[in-house]
Design brief:
This protein has 6 helices and 42 strands. The chain is mostly beta strands. The protein has a 22-stranded antiparallel barrel. It has a 5-stranded mixed beta sheet with strand order 3-8-9-6-7. Strands 15-41-40 form a 3-stranded antiparallel beta sheet, with no helix packed on it. The longest helix has 18 residues, at 2-19. The model is unreliable at 1-34, 623-627 and 691-702 (pLDDT under 50).
Length: 855
């Protein structure tokens, strides 16, 4: 199938190239730069060298500063609307980013230590670890979304792609500007910019941003409390560019940002809505059900709807706070230093250094209840002495830095090369933040305190050597070979952070240290300490044919790798101390052209990816017998896709763009423990997950409501044929812009945009899905020589489909087995709480007014 796809695609592209001779295309790119009748020529650095978007043989979507303004792109989820092959959904607000490029999704990314998304962020080519949702896009000249494995050149965690934010250069002339915007729900944004020369060889720039949004979702747990979902960001950045001597360019940039987001809005679909896969892990078989609901179904099949009801026990409106902190707070400093050195005979050296220092605090009320059924422990004076059930808060301190050195030969020669060295280190320390009983009190409890305790440290070190060798076979045909050899070490420590529930009894923990189980570990003591090394070699080969200066046809073979990690104490106890890197083999063909004398551009690509050792979640028994999850390499998958991007200037005043992406993804091998629970009627799969694993023994529980005997015939944990979750099959967007001169210095402008994203499954089991999403936006205004005033709108049709949902528990139903299930645990019945789902709602319709002034 892969060979057929590549041969068919190659033949089609070759035929297209032959049928469209060079004379029908644009002239030299330099002629189009300031010509409004032609599509703007965009220079990108997707291959770590400057090339035009049309000539670079890689699938990349470039969004410039004018696009960011016209399309009202304020965050990465807005960017995804207009980028074929990129899906981004906020599952946890402005924390835990999970970009999905070309179907390579990870459910656990960011939610479990060491699991990464496989798509990395870069700022000016420097690796940026962590969330980037609050970046100041007004300080960005363009964004490059580079699709397909970039492991050879970009390195770690670029398994399926890379997103590079290129920031503004200060330039050599004095520039100043301000942007003020106000919109629905008191959304306010203010940007200030100042840049220009300082001396004859030094220039600099400053940028500042203030952003606030009040949120728009009422809190059902505290009706008189503030709306949920508020956001606030304050940031300032500075850049210096120096050319002290000929052949040397230095660029230093630092940004400091502070985010302060209120309690997040989480919707909840209870287990009472489940409508498929009847079995024991359902409301009908709970021994201490909190309601009279008798639903026998274990799963939901269909589109999860936003109910408009959101519970967060914030402490407002007379409620008790679920945890000491609810929301997202971030204090971030990120900086980079880049040096470009010109050597004799056109050789160059590039040095890039980056650092990042972040403190991130998050908290949520994750039982999604009103607090009445699971109240916190109160001291005699009414102060909290424990968190609510699933009420949690914590913080993580992260420090990382990277250094890259590249030596390049002249790039205009028939044979050209680049050789580089790379180093990266990350150190993280995690803390739990809990209500607890005050130590030493005479009663149980007398009062409460807030305890902040270190519970983990993570460290990552990565070293690599990489390079590229290019060769022009003929004047129009070339081949590029790239490769990276890297070694990564990951280390994890866990510490006892048990919460004092009795003021006179000091809590202790158990763990696994030095190859042995340990018990009675005091608070602050070590409960886990381990490290693992992961080595990888990732090659990439690109064959490029340029029949003329306005067409590029390419074929790529590439291998990708996503970092492995550690599973901690539970992993060791269950025989899975680590999870290995996820790897992929990728084939791609592509075609790019500048059409109709420069009025249009076209980019087409088709790819086939085979993913091995996919990092999935596996249920294991904790010390108390309750099921929890670790990461295992249990599945393989195949992902096929097609992308198209077309831009066209109809006249000097009218233009449009259209893009489309189709992804077909399915597991070709794999097993999931909860899939067995669903198909067996409520049994645990046992100690080993295989596609035909059956529970041993002969339990004699009562029959299911439909009279079936369990385990049900044909029960298995196979996920072969299932779709990869979080991946839409289809994405498309269309936008159109128009402008007209009203006078010598006055212009009318207008734009409209529409985007579509197909439904996404929540988990490997299918069934539960988000539903289709169609979003409409627009902008209209007038501009003068130095100012621009516009009215903007987003989600004008008030689309209410959920962005994404997470598989969860309905703790309201309890977890004990019904009285009739004698010896349930021994007979292999899954007695966990019935499955339910939580989600973040989509922002509703918003309109606003924006004023820009430039000098």
């Amino acid at each position: 199938m892969t060979q057929r796809l590549l041969l068919t695609g190659s033949a089609a592209l070759m035929a297209l190239a032959i049928a469209m001779p060079g004379t029908s295309f644009a002239q030299a790119a330099s002629d189009t730069e300031a010509d409004r009748s032609r599509v703007e020529t965009i220079i990108v650095t997707a291959r770590k060298t400057q090339e035009s978007l049309i000539s670079t043989p890689v699938a990349v979507t470039a969004v410039g500063a004018s696009d960011v303004s016209r399309l009202n792109i304020q965050a990465i989820d807005d960017l995804a609307r207009f980028t074929p092959g990129l899906s981004f959904s906020k599952a946890f607000g402005r924390a835990t980013d999970r970009p999905v490029v070309r179907g390579a999704a990870s459910i656990l990314a960011g939610t479990q230590p060491g699991v990464e998304a496989g798509t990395a962020y870069f700022v000016d080519g420097v690796y940026y670890q962590g969330d980037i949702s609050s970046i100041d896009l007004a300080d960005v000249a363009r964004v490059e979304v580079i699709k397909g494995p970039q492991s050879a050149l970009y390195g770690r965690n670029t398994y399926s792609g890379a997103i590079n934010f290129i920031t503004n250069s200060p330039g050599t002339s004095l520039k100043a500007g301000a942007t003020l915007s106000i919109g629905t729900h008191n959304e306010q944004t203010a940007n200030l910019r100042l840049a220009g020369p300082i001396t004859s060889w030094l220039s600099g720039g400053l940028a500042a941003r203030y952003y606030t949004y009040d949120g728009e979702w009422g809190n059902s747990a505290a009706r008189d409390d503030n709306p949920l979902g508020s956001e606030q960001t304050k940031s300032v950045s500075g850049v210096l560019e120096a050319r002290p001597v000929q052949g040397l360019t230095l660029r230093a940039r630092v940004v400091h940002a502070e985010d302060e987001d209120g309690p997040r809005a989480f919707g909840f679909q209870a287990s009472s809505k489940n409508n498929c896969y009847p079995g024991y892990r359902s409301n009908a078989y709970r021994g201490a059900a909190a309601t009279t609901d008798n639903n026998p179904n274990q799963w939901f099949c269909g589109v999860i709807k936003d109910t408009g009801v959101y519970f967060q026990n914030t402490g407002g409106g007379g409620t008790r706070p679920a945890a000491p902190f609810l929301g997202v707070e971030r204090d971030l400093t990120f900086g980079s230093l880049i040096a470009d050195v010109d050597l004799p005979n056109d050789y160059t050296v590039n040095v890039s250094y980056g650092f990042r220092d972040e403190t991130l605090k998050t908290g949520s009320d994750s039982d999604f209840l009103n607090g009445a059924s699971f109240p916190q422990t109160l001291g005699a004076n009414g102060i909290m002495a424990s968190n609510s059930l699933f009420g949690s808060s914590g913080s993580t301190e992260s420090k990382d830095m990277s250094l890259e050195v590249k030596l390049s030969s002249p790039q205009d020669k028939r044979v050209r090369w680049m050789l580089g060295l790379y180093g990266y280190s990350l150190d993280q320390t995690g803390f739990s933040i809990d209500f607890a009983a005050d130590a030493g009190a005479t009663a149980t409890p007398v009062n409460g305190v807030i305890m902040t305790q270190k519970n983990l440290t993570n460290s990552t070190s990565n070293g690599a050597i990489f390079g590229r060798l290019g060769f022009d076979i003929t004047d129009t045909l070339s081949i590029d070979l790239e490769a990276r050899q890297q070694a990564e070490k990951r280390s994890t420590q866990n510490f006892c952070a048990a919460v004092r529930s009795n003021p006179t009894i000091a809590p202790t923990c158990t763990g696994f240290v030095g190859g042995s189980n340990v018990a009675g570990v005091a608070v602050g003591g070590l409960t886990y300490d381990d490290s693992r090394n992961f080595d990888s070699f990732t090659p990439r080969a690109t064959l490029t044919w340029k029949p003329n200066e306005n067409q590029t046809i390419y074929a790529i073979y590439a291998e990708g790798t996503k970092p492995g990690g550690l599973n901690g104490t539970l992993g060791i106890a269950n025989g899975f101390p680590q999870f290995d890197p996820e790897t992929s083999t990728n084939y791609e063909v592509g075609y790019k052209a500048r059409l109709f004398d420069g009025r249009g551009t076209l980019a087409l690509s088709a790819y086939d990816t085979k993913a091995d050792k996919m990092q999935l979640t596996t249920a294991v028994s904790g010390s108390s017998g309750v099921l929890t999850s670790i990461v295992t390499n249990q599945g393989n998958a195949e992902i096929k896709g097609f992308e198209a991007d077309f831009r066209f200037r109809v006249t000097d005043n009218l233009g449009f763009s259209l893009n489309y992406s189709h992804i077909s993804s399915e597991f070709t091998e794999g097993c999931d423990e909860f899939q067995y629970t669903l198909t067996s009627g409520g049994y645990q799969i046992g100690t080993t997950c295989t596609s035909t694993r059956r529970v041993a023994g002969s339990p004699n529980p009562p029959a299911l409501p439909n009279g079936s005997v369990v385990p049900l015939p044909g029960a298995n944990g196979s996920i072969v044929g299932a779709k990869i979750p979080l991946v839409p099959a289809d994405q498309a967007s269309f936008n159109i812009d128009y402008s007209r001169q009203l006078g010598a210095n006055l212009e009318l402008f207008a734009s409209a945009d529409l985007s579509y994203e197909g439904t996404k499954y929540i988990q490997v089991h299918g069934g539960a899905e988000t539903g289709e999403t169609t979003l409409v936006g627009g902008r209209v205004g007038v501009s003068g020589e130095r100012w621009k005033l516009s009215l903007w709108g987003k989600n004008l049709t008030d689309e209410d489909s959920i962005p994404i949902a997470t598989r969860w528990f309905d703790v309201f139903q309890g977890s004990a087995a019904a009285a009739g299930l004698t010896g349930a645990a021994a007979s292999g019945i899954d007695t966990g709480s019935p499955r339910a789902f939580f989600f973040m709602p989509r922002r509703g319709r918003s309109v606003g007014l924006e004023l820009k002034v430039n000098y």
